[in-house]
Amino acid sequence: MPGFSQATELSAWKALQEHHNTLGKNIVLKEYFEKDPKRFEKFSRTFQNSADNNEILFDFSKNFLTEETLSLLVKLAKEANLEQLRDDMFKGEPINFTENRAVYHVALRNVTNQPMQVNGKSVVEEVNSVLEHMKEFSEQVRSGEWKGYTGKKIKTVINIGIGGSDLGPVMVTEALKAYADRNLTMHFVSNIDGTHIAEALKESDPETTLFLVASKTFTTAETITNANTAKKWFLETAKDESAIAKHFVALSTNEEEVTKFGIDKKNMFGFESWVGGRYSVWSAIGLSVAIYIGFDNFHEFLAGAHAMDKHFQETPLEQNIPVIGGLLSVWYSDFFGAQTHLVAPFDQYLHRFPAYLQQLSMESNGKAITRSGDYVKYTTGPILFGEPATNAQHSFFQLLHQGTKLIPADFLIAAESHNPVEGGKHQRMLASNFLAQSEALMIGKTPEQVKAEGAPEALVAHKTFLGNRPTTSILAQKITPGALGALIAYYEHVTFTEGAIWNINSFDQWGVELGKVLAKKIQKELETPGEGSDHDASTSGLLFAFKKKSKLA
Ligand code: F6P
Q1: Whose C-alpha lies nearest to ligand 1, atom 9?
Q2: Looking at the predicted structure, is the pLDDT value of residue 24 above 80?
Q3: Is the pLDDT score of 448 beyond 90?
Q4: Does 310 reside within a domain?
Q5: Does residue 532 surpass a pLDDT of 90?
Q6: Does residue 460 belong to any structural domain of this protein?
Q7: What family is this protein classified in (predicted)?
Q8: Which of 119, 154, 224, 406 stands the most exposed, by the fewest C-beta atoms within 10 Å?
Q9: Count of H helices and E strands in the chain?
Q10: What is the pLDDT of residue 542?
Q11: Is 286 in the same domain as 361?
Q12: What are the beta bridge partners of residue 343?
């Protein structure tokens, strides 16, 4: 445990409060740029990605940041023992103390085979052996060597999982579609809403479909129910239980439950309890990704994350890209009262990236109890949201530009498109929007400018933009597997940094439990006739109304 409970106790926090008091209202970003021609160089950082030999440029200069701010934020990180916590994570210490577990997803992408241990036992061999199994299996499926029970090649892969067992695979397969074997049709079934599995099955043929049942615990109600439905559907045609071995594999830590479900141990890809669900795309949970884009690309994806891990581990805090990202988030949340954080990828392939980051950020830092067990005296995890731009510009960006809320935003783009349509014209238009949005948010438009354009007096206020809205711009060369791996790891370490400062445990998720327990109880009530229940009047009323409408009452 660190030597503090509340981050507000730290002297750097107090210094930041004073700094904010003097600076806060006087920050005018565009004036910072006018006064300091070197501001862009000063506050942007370049990440050299050894995975694909490309760079990723992170421009933090359009943030509420002076040299003093950065040095105070770094001081805050030091006082909060960020480096110690980070080093403990990389040493495999049980930093997820409420579950007494290491937080070791970084060991899954240890492509340089550095010694890594949990409880004094090396994990490198086990990680590599699962990767080897994934390589062999994914190659067999892609080449057609792996055959269904009637001897046909697999054409459809259905990943059944939810939360981290869904969002990572679905986001990454979408993001890296350009690398995919397009003869394979991928489905990702997560929702317990029967529509989800029904729609996937409608388009599939049992003879050529492979199910990946992805669940760390193998007890998640949605996943097990969907997997049983899939099994029934499959057996209606196949008739023979022994055919299951050709069509169902499990990605899980729970061998006992996997076997009970009827999946052979040979067809299980394992991982350990030190892999949190929202950090599991790097593990066996990523098998759908390896099948779709090929194992070499999957390996490059791991290597990109590993390169970012090394950067996070070894770079001084002032230069450390995810540390700066995380500290800025704390700065906005706790000193400027920002409640949200927008991530807008200017990239259609990244359309599920914000959804993925929502789980990463909000399941990690949606906590209110410090590591010493006290209720926090400050705001923690922001509400992360996003959509791909330019679409988002035509929907909710109005609120960013002229609303009353401060919404720090990250904009992401690649210089090179995988689809350079019309000689790159589309990409240039996309980039012009990427650049224009952060510029517009910063410079705004004064009433004088509006008047000079001839706007009638009554409209001047309506057409004015206050500006001074902070953004971070992230420019990759291309969204390669290596770049995506690095970007995800960037956000993981941003989340880690935030949690370290707030002194919360970013690695458990007790908050999801209560709803699960109540749903189980209510499910029983829904399956028994009559009105009886001991809920509040609203829940009872709704329950009975549902039963009546669905003819269960
Ligand atoms: O209920 C939340 C959660 O535990 C997530 O943390 C996790 O990613 C998801 O459910 C799925 O869990 P599992 O992989 O065990 O099915």
Answers
A1: 163
A2: no
A3: yes
A4: no
A5: no
A6: yes
A7: Belongs to the GPI family.
A8: 119
A9: 23, 13
A10: 93
A11: no
A12: 410
Alpha-carbon distance values, 324 to 480, 482, 489, 503 (Å):
24, 21, 14, 17
Residues 228, 373 share a domain: no
Residue 177 is assigned to a structural domain of this protein = yes
pLDDT-based confidence at 2, cuts 50/70/90? confident
Q: How far is the CA of 470 from the centre of ligand 1 (A)?
A: 34
Parent domain of 463: 7-95+315-502
Residue among 46, 21, 30, 36 at smallest CA distance from 67: 36
User: Which residues carry out catalysis?
Assistant: 363, 394, 516
Nearest-atom number in ligand 1 for the CA of 512 is 1
pLDDT score of 285: 98
Q: Which of 167, 220, 222, 507 to mutate to test the pocket of ligand 1 (most atoms within 8 A of CB)?
A: 220
Domain identity same for 412 and 377: yes
CA dist 236 to 150, 192, 231, 264, 453, Å?
Answer: 14, 21, 9, 20, 70
Residue to mutate (ligand 1; options 101, 103, 165, 274; most atoms within 8 A of CB): 165
pLDDT tens digits, 42-54: 999 999 999 999 9
Model confidence over 273-285: pLDDT tens digits? Answer: 999 999 999 999 9
Q: Per the domain annotation, does 302 fall within a domain? A: no
CA pair distance 31, 512, nearest whole angstrom: 45
Per-residue confidence band for 469, with pLDDT thresholds at 50, 70 and 90? very high
Number of domains in the chain: 3
Per-residue confidence (pLDDT) for residue 491, from 0 to 100? 99
DSSP state of 273: T
Tell which atom from ligand 1 comes closest to the C-alpha of 277.
Answer: 8
Domain-terminating residue out of 295, 325, 347: 295
Position 25 scores a pLDDT of: 77
